[in-house]
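Appendix B, Record 12. Input sequence as logged:
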Amino acid sequence: MELTPEKDYVLKSIQSNDVHFIRFWFTDVLGSLKSFAVTPSEIENAFEEGMGFDGSSIEGFSRVQESDMLAFPDASTFQVLPWRPVKNGVARMFCDVRTPEGLTFEGDPRYALKRMLQKAAAMGFTMNVGPELEFFYFTDQERTLPLDNGGYFDLTPLDLASDIRRDTVLSLENMGIPVEYSHHEVAPSQHEIDLRYDDALSMADSVMTYRLVVKEVAMKHDVYATFMPKPISDQNGNGMHIHQSLFTDDESNAFFDANDPQGYNLSAVAKSYIAGILRYAPEFTAVTNQFVNSYKRLVPGYEAPVYVTWARRNRSALVRVPLYKPGKEQATRIEVRSPDPSCNPYLAFAVMLGAGLKGIEEEMTLPPEFTANAFALSAQELKEAKIETLPSTLGAAIEAFEKSELMREVLGEHIHSYFVRNKRAEWAEFSAHVTDWELSRYLAVL
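Logged structural output:
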């Protein structure tokens, strides 16, 4: 077997770092991280022929009669896990999933994103992404008991989790994942660590790593970290604001235009991309906000956008054009504010890119900037302004997603149909469940 420089680096790193186990990572359709460990003696063969596993055990992969799958490790994603012992260490590589015939597996979320990135490349674009993931620290996984009563940007002593965040940032950077910011968020015991932008595929891998690192480091400090969208009913929920831009082959920012006649410094490409996001946001919300609990966050009053609008300074808008560095080409980007950190990042990036590229292809027109506080407007005022809202429940989101031809095209029939079946079942189960709220409100009076 002829080794590429990346594969040769992996083999040498395994030896020099005393690595005895290499975890092969991939995700199911819902974005749960899956893994099995391989010993160093198997790595060369894995690069060449892949490693077999039972796909019927993975959500959304394959039926029992079509269960055999192969995981092919991506050598560029090799990293030693810093929270595991140095002696007899453990490393990981993300994998691409294929059939026994060597064909790309249509149910692999990483492939769904790769397919959309190939479409973008054919149009001359590379997608860069910078997500802001929020999470809570609680004393354990049984209760929502916070570690502090701090608020936005609070520091010690209100922010008791500074040391946990510090260890998390160091672990991420040890794994080659650069961090831009870390701080206390609005709600008690809520935190945010923002990753430096990267190409979309690398960033999706980094988001999967991030979520595991946050939880692993929290466990070492005897606390529990959760990315649940809305764990506390009267506090802000966890969001994952996703900054994104398109760069051209010559590494210039396709979203930037210093001569924008409207003074936004946005190119025609950027405006059509935003228009595509706004047009298809109700259809892709089931992916970016995929659980029943996601819609407890998407309600007015808790800083989560529910109105399909765009703006620059207005944080009630679904899409924002940040103005931290006005007029600077490299910093020109858009921020989609509705997703939450429980989504599958491969699929979330894919559907947003698909919507934006559709906007570019059809030269969609960007509606006027919405400068009012949408949360302060009445239902009648919103109707008069023709402001559309995102789906208010998972059931409504699945209805829009199922009917969407673009979502079926972006994700492929396999993932699209499985996602619909899975989410319909979740919504049906929730709809039939009698909650504590109903019992306390009705049992004693009806």
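The mean pLDDT is 90.
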